[in-house]
Amino acid sequence: MAINWNAFWEWANPRKFMRWTDRALPVISVLAAVIFVGGLVWGFFFTPDDYRQGATVKIFYIHVPSAMMAINIWAMMLVASLVWIVRRHHVSALAAKSAAAIGMTMTLIALITGAVWGKPMWGTYWEWDPRLTSFLILLLFYIGYMALWEAIDNPDTAADLTSVLCLVGSVFALLSRYAVLFWNQGLHQGASLSLDAEENVADVYWYPALVAIAGFILLFVSLVLLRTRTEIRARRLHALEMRERVKDA
Amino acid sequence: MIRLLWRDITLAFRSGGGFGLGLGFFLILVTLVPFGVGPNGEMLSAIAPGILWVGALLACLLSLDRIFALDFEDGSLDLLATAPIPLEGVVAMKALAHWITTGLPLVIAAPALGFLLHLDSAAYRWLIVTLLIGTPALSFIGSFGAALTVGLKRGGLLMSLLVLPLYIPTLIFGAEVVRRGAGGFLVATPLAMQAGITLGAIALLPFAAAAAIRVALR
């Protein structure tokens, strides 16, 4: 099948981006709201309590999707940074910038829900377990990335430097992930959801979890589009202001 | 390139170059720890590997902004960037100079400070070996962080925020080797991992740092 790649890249033209997101955003947001709320309500109120964990198991519907998103958003930022470095699409750089704050929030949600669940189950809010530690490190990477964006005035310079940081940071984040595995034995259970396992969790928990994950993904997509639009508008406003100032002078 | 190396080393040794500051900081840090946790010898020897590694890391961090900042301010970095040697080579030489003036003294001083912290006698050998292998990685990773923040006015604190997470793998393997050495276990695996990180950092990060400097000089 022949894909017209030029047409694909044209979607990233700021004006076209604004036009198609203007139409797509309401649909995606409504869809995100419905599925997000639906998945959580199904998970919270219409699944049985676990026989050992009781009702605490239900935090799973927030914890697992947010943890997944925390990692996937970094991957998305990596792709967006690469696109910026290779093709210099401004929308791509701005999307990476918009995604960072959401990714950091997801990481925080995963850490906090994990802590809340860990207290009754493991008897501790925090343990220097490899998974927990890698998430803390991921949080540090998000903070550093956002701080670098904030610190640089020139938007193109900022986009370039943060992209390089994102690339190098990804390598080191992965390295840290495996280094902490080496450093301490884990308390955290293995992956809850993986595609290659026969059965991950019982089906009653599995389906609402899938819906919740879909809800989180849609929520992220709509937020990132919204924030990217805001960034583009802010950039335009800045350009207009500069033009006015030049006219006045 | 060799001349550039000598220039950086001489500049660091001359007054105002900051040579020895990192070393002094390392000494003070190690002196402060017993005040914080109490003079109990057993406890000190248990945490000594970690303290020495964290101390070396922070001492290294302290002098990172000197790698590029001064040259950026007086314009020599522009000259170096337009010089007939590749910018990657400039970065690598500057990182090497940073290691010789900061990392190497730390390696030499660490056993004396380990003595202060009641470091287990079996661990001295491994402390020196890991610092010798690990500190070049600190300098090269740091040169990347310094390159990212070179054009910024208040880059110092930001640089620590960017660089310290990148130091985590080096720290983990370094302290692990010393801990295992103290306990008399096999150290080959973490040592090999750490050497891998160092070699990877030396091979790849100058390119990333040079890219960042080109952006800053644009």
Outline the structure in words.
The complex is a heterodimer of chains A (249) and B (218). Chain A is mainly α. Chain A has helices at residues 5-10, 14-45, 60-87, 90-122, 130-151, 155-183, 203-248. The termini of chain A are far apart. In chain B, helix 1 (2-13) packs across helix 6 (87-116), helix 6 packs across helix 9 (188-217) and helix 7 (123-148) runs parallel beside helix 9 (188-217). By secondary structure, chain B is mainly α. Chain B is elongated and about 55 Å long. The A-B interface holds A 137, 140-141, 143-144, 147-148, 151-152, 157, 160-161, 164-165, 167-169, 172, 175-176, 179-180, 182-183 and B 144, 148-149, 151-152, 154-155, 158, 161-162, 164-166, 168-169, 172-173, 176, 189-190, 193, 197, 205, 208, 211-212, 215-216, 218.
What is the ordering of alpha helices and beta strands of chain A?
HHHHHHH
In quaternary terms, these chains amount to heterodimer
N/C terminus separation of chain A: 56 Å
Distance between the termini of chain B: 23 Å
Radius of gyration of chain A: 21 Å
Give the overall shape of chain A. globular
Class based on secondary structure composition and strand pairing of chain B: mainly alpha
Q: What is the rounded Rg of chain B? A: 18 Å
Give a nutshell description of this structure.
The complex is a heterodimer of chains A (249) and B (218). Chain A is mainly alpha-helical and 249 residues long.
Offer a few descriptive terms.
heterodimer; A: 249 residues; mainly alpha; 7 helices; 79% helix; 0% strand; globular; B: 218 residues; 9 helices
Give the topology, please.
The complex is a heterodimer of chains A (249) and B (218).
Chain A: H1 5-10, H2 14-45, H3 60-87, H4 90-122, H5 130-151, H6 155-183, H7 203-248
Helix pairs in contact in A: 2-7, 3-4, 3-6, 3-7, 4-5, 4-7, 5-6
Chain B: H1 2-13, H2 21-37, H3 41-62, H4 69-73, H5 76-82, H6 87-116, H7 123-148, H8 155-183, H9 188-217
Helix pairs in contact in B: 1-6, 2-3, 2-6, 3-6, 3-7, 3-8, 6-7, 6-9, 7-8, 7-9, 8-9
